[in-house]
Amino acid sequence: MKRIIATLALCAGLLLSGTPAQAGDKVNVKMTTSMGVIELQLDAERAPETVANFVRYAKEGFYNGTVFHRVIPNFMIQGGGFTPNLSQKATHASIVNEADNDLRNTTGTIAMARTSDPHSATSQFFINTHDNGFLNFKGKTRSEWGYAIFGKVTSGMDVVRGIEGVATGYRAGMGDVPLEPVIIESVEVIE
């Protein structure tokens, strides 16, 4: 029932926003970074609320000028919430965690970042640079929810690997921050 309601919400939200995608469609996205272009295919059938959330931020231009602020080799690259000076951007309300959608945290997939609260994801996302099975859904307890996959890289994995390889350090109270900002210049939904 939850999935049906989320799918109906996705359809309504996407129709109102002018996006031609319907539940079950794949949504294509072009992410232009200061290190190159990453193309993504989002799975609106298996992660309808998550995809609608990401598309909303993209269409609002929210991601433009944000950075990949956390980079850990053989794990993931995370972005979508901080400016180059590491100021955190204000976001919309958090979304329901859709990690129970049978998608797995494998190399090249994109997932929602969150706090220890399973249902706290807002704008931040990460791209897995390794198979990270320990992040997968295992159950509906707080510690088992996992991280919701909502798409995959279809082109530009070399760019992801380039970002993964940048020098990092400690800045603004955070570790694993690229010493030279890796900027997300734009995120465009391909219609």
Distance between the amino and carboxyl termini? 29 Å
Strand count, sense and barrel status of the largest sheet are: 8 strands, antiparallel, barrel
| Nearest-integer average pLDDT | 91
**CATH level 1 name:** Mainly Beta
Count of domain modules: 1
How large is the share of residues in beta strands? 25-35%
* Second-tier CATH architecture: Beta Barrel
**Helical proportion, percent range:** 10-25%
> Which fold name is given in CATH as the topology?
Cyclophilin
Class based on secondary structure composition and strand pairing: alpha+beta
Instruction: Please work out how many helical segments DSSP would assign.
Output: 3
Widest sheet: strand ordering: 1-2-7-5-6-4-3-10
Shape: globular
Indicate the low-confidence ranges by residue numbers.
Answer: 1-23
Structure summary, number of beta strands: 10
| Radius of gyration, CA atoms, in whole angstroms | 16 Å
What do we call the CATH homologous superfamily? Cyclophilin-like
Order of helices and strands: HEEHEEEEEHEEE
Descriptive notes:
The chain is of the alpha+beta class and 191 residues long. The chain has one domain (2-190): Cyclophilin, CATH 2.40.100.10. The chain is 19% helix and 31% strand. The strands form 2 sheets. Strands 1-2-7-5-6-4-3-10 form an 8-stranded antiparallel barrel. A two-stranded antiparallel sheet has the order 8-9. It is globular, with a radius of gyration of 16 Å.
